Amino acid sequence: MNKNLFGEHAARLSLIASMAVFGTIGIFRKYILLPSGFVAMARGLLGALFLLAVILLRRRKVGEKSKAVRAALPKLCLSGVLIGFNWILLFEAYRYTTVATATLCYYMAPILVILASPFLLRERITARKGIAVALSLVGIVLVSGVTEGGDVGDGRGILLGLGAALLYATIILLNKTLPDLSPFEKTFVQLAVAGVVLIPYTLLAEVVFGNADFFFDLASIVLLLFLGVVHTGIAYALYFGSMGKLPAHTISIFSYIDPVLAILLSAWLLHEPMSPAAAIGAVLILGAAFLCELPVRKK
Question: Of 19, 49, 141, 235, which has the fewest CB atoms closer than 10 Å, so is most exposed?
């Protein structure tokens, strides 16, 4: 009993640590003076290499599901491509708007999943989910600044953040169709595909036909390595390592450490302003997403 309690306690700490790390991605991106495609490519490749090392160390535990991973390879490759371009849109959103605004736009993904589920998953939209959709839509209007009139900032950041949310929602829906797979091997394939696919994209869009500026200063290189190894490899390893030891509702609740920390750090470290209306919108969006995660009480 004590051993089980200790294992659950360690799993909670691992989950909290991973969510805290995810919440600082926007801060790190702000200080990396490199194009978003290159940053996303490096993140995928570095994260995949780290997870490969984890897989090799845990081979006896996860190798038994390798056949299932190979069977699901087409869907995994498609989701990997979507992950890569999802990162690009999110990193670009950080460039054009505040970290808080980009993060909140990104957290519209669960709402998009709800809207698509009746058509793709044949799931009914309950009254609670309908309320969550309405709250999130009001929230995104308040966060955008439209209700305050005047200059609402660069709308490209909001559109890019919503585009990233759309891709992430697609990834969620695609993953729902996958069989029971080893999370480490599944994520390794997705990260590796994301990194490899973005190599030609980076060469063509940002080097050959683009005019992107590459500033390979020491700070950007160190932060990029940190983003790939810590924010991707280690964070995903901690996140998936806690999965089997914690109930689903605990994982859902702790996942909100990510956006809350991102918003707080953007105000503290980057001194990014947030109007009262945007603050209300943030509460509505996060509250709506949280409402969707609450367990349904069965009769």
Answer: 141
Tokens of 208: 């050959």
Question: For the chain, how far is it from start to end, CA to CA, in angstroms?
Answer: 31
What average pLDDT does the chain have? 84
Instruction: Give 232: exposed, middle or buried? Use CB within 10 Å, 0-12, 13-18, 19+.
Output: buried
How do the domains of the chain map onto residue ranges?
2-293
Residue 236 CA: distances (Å) to CA of 239, 291, 293 = 5, 25, 21
Q: How far apart are CA 30 and CA 16, in angstroms?
A: 23
- Structure token pair of residue 194: 């994301």
Question: pLDDT band at residue 40, thresholds of 50, 70 and 90?
Answer: very high
pTM: 0.86
CA distances to 114, 157, 199 from 81, rounded to whole Å, are 23, 22, 11
- How long a stretch of residues is the chain? 299
The closest of 80, 110, 113, 42 to 186, measured between CA atoms, is: 80
**Residue in this structure with the two tokens 């702790």, named with its chain if needed:** 254
Token pair listed for 272: 């990014």
For 158-174, write each residue's pLDDT tens digit.
999 999 999 999 998 88
What's the pLDDT at 150? 45
CA distance 255 to 266: 18
Q: Residue 250: which region, alpha, beta or left (left: phi > 0; alpha: psi -120 to 50)? A: alpha
Is pLDDT larger for residue 178 or for residue 22?
22
Token pair for 212: 């992107």
Closest CA to 254 of 1, 5, 4, 23: 23
> Would you put residue 180 in left (φ > 0), alpha (ψ -120 to 50) or beta?
beta
Q: Is the pLDDT of residue 128 over 90?
A: no
